[in-house]
Specification:
Helix content: 55-70%
Distance between the termini: 35 Å
Structural class: mainly alpha
Oligomer: single chain
Length: about 110
């Protein structure tokens, strides 16, 4: 496989996606630590019988879906871009720019999470 500017753009977008997920995970962990510290400082270290059980650290979700529309649109746009990469029936002036469509799809998908 030859590395061309299109593949570099797609790989950069995917790396951006993973950096964003790492950032969101770190932010959620930091917020959880701050909440726990505030709870301990408030003197509520002892649990009351009616309190909900605390989730184990491994069970906590570190990101949330912000917009299902962005995630769906991003997935569809990525699939369209990949189809442009492999089909022969599309107009010739669009085929060299498949990577732009995939990159836009990855960016849309990335900002669907919060």
């Amino acid at each position: 496989m030859k590395i061309d500017p299109g593949w570099i753009a797609v790989i950069t977008a995917v790396v951006f996606f993973y950096i964003r997920m790492y950032q969101l995970r770190g932010r959620r962990r930091r917020e959880a630590r701050q909440e726990e510290l505030a709870r301990l400082r408030a003197g509520a270290a002892k649990r009351k019988p009616g309190d909900a059980p605390l989730a184990a650290p491994g069970e906590q979700v570190t990101y949330r879906v912000g917009s299902w529309w962005l995630i769906g649109a991003g997935a569809v746009v990525m699939l369209i871009g990949l189809a442009l990469r492999t089909v022969t029936w599309a107009p010739e002036f669009i085929l060299p720019y498949w990577w732009a469509v995939v990159t836009v799809g990855v960016v849309l998908f990335t900002f669907g999470f919060k």
